[in-house]
Design brief:
With 312 residues, this protein is of the alpha/beta class. The chain has a single domain, classed as Spore Coat Polysaccharide Biosynthesis Protein SpsA, Chain A, CATH 3.90.550. 24% of the residues lie in helices and 24% in strands. The protein is built from seven helices and 13 strands.
């Protein structure tokens, strides 16, 4: 059975400004997610599902979905702030959606096969889709509790225009994920002088506001996850527990993230998550200043014959 690609497209790009999922960066106005979908098709995926906000459905159908007709089956599902389990209601004053794992839950009724979750605004490069596609396609039928994550090498995921947030991963001897800790500031910086630059060590800021150095090849999560449909059931059940836990409903910005669910399943011994290595170099438009460099990188990939001039 061919795996499905689930694309998280419900968020607005707060640091970049505007609806960056629809920003044309390729030679014919291709978006970053067009390249992801092209790479996924080349890597054996059989269906795509987008999670979006209902209020830009019409624009999304016109500008995005129409492109893929005849290339790959595509579906839309919607993330809304009031999509909550029975007994829960949206706290007064809350405007923010409930996070990436809540978004994933919205696809429960349309995905019945192994699937990969990605962000829409990250350029992952084809090797990432190749390794996760192979993992999912080779799972035994009715496989459960055996998941995967593409572990990018942190040095291949930095922005030249500021810090990035990454899930820094630890693994055991079998390359199974043991923890993933979200680090909101990762950058090339000299901890003593605070000087930034291409030759400085890679560091993240810890809970005590100290810079901690990490190796170039340290695996980080770029939100490329491989799951089987049983993951939806775990997510639904844990969402109720999470909402009922202390402080969640009072904090108007609390979010139900994928790593939160994954860490629980790992710690409970319910599931394993294999960290798949990739040589792929990530790039994306985290900051508006990143845009010209991304346009140039895509232009070069087209010139090198990696991608055709027109994708779809």
């Amino acid at each position: 059975m061919k795996p499905t690609l689930l694309l998280l497209a419900a968020g607005m790009g707060s640091r970049y400004g505007g609806l960056k999922q629809l920003d044309g960066l390729g030679p014919n106005g291709e978006t970053i997610m067009d390249y992801s979908i092209y790479d996924a098709i080349q890597s054996g995926f059989g269906k795509i599902v987008f999670i979006i906000r209902k209020d830009f459905e019409e624009e999304f159908r016109q500008k995005v979905l129409s492109k893929y007709e005849g290339h790959i089956p595509a579906e839309l599902v919607f993330q809304s702030i009031d999509a909550l389990p029975e007994g829960f209601s949206v706290p007064e004053g809350r405007e923010k959606p409930w996070g990436t794992n809540h978004a994933v839950l919205m696809a429960k009724d349309v995905i019945k096969e192994p699937f990969c979750v990605i962000n829409c605004d990250d350029f992952y490069n084809r090797d990432a889709f190749r390794v996760i596609g192979k993992f999912l396609a080779e799972l035994p039928e009715d496989s459960k509790n055996t998941y995967a994550m593409v572990g990018y090498r942190v040095g291949n995921t930095l922005s030249e225009n500021g810090s990035v947030a990454r899930g820094v991963c630890s693994t055991d001897a079998q390359r199974h994920l043991t923890t993933v800790v979200e680090r909101t500031q990762i950058i090339r910086i000299n901890p003593q002088t605070q000087q930034m630059g291409a030759t400085e060590p890679i560091c993240y800021k810890d809970e005590d506001d100290k810079w901690i150095e990490v190796e170039f090849n340290t695996p980080v999560s770029m939100n490329v996850w491989g799951f089987t449909p049983d993951y939806f059931d775990y997510s639904e059940e844990y969402f109720k527990q999470w909402l009922a836990s202390d402080g969640v409903m009072q904090n108007l910005k609390s979010e139900y993230f994928i790593p939160l669910m994954v860490n629980k399943l790992i710690n409970d011994g319910t599931a394993t998550v294999e960290v798949l290595d990739t040589t792929a170099t990530w790039f994306g438009v985290t900051y508006a200043a990143d845009r010209p460099a991304v346009v140039e990188k895509i232009k070069q990939l087209v010139a090198d014959g990696i991608y055709p001039q027109k994708l779809f």
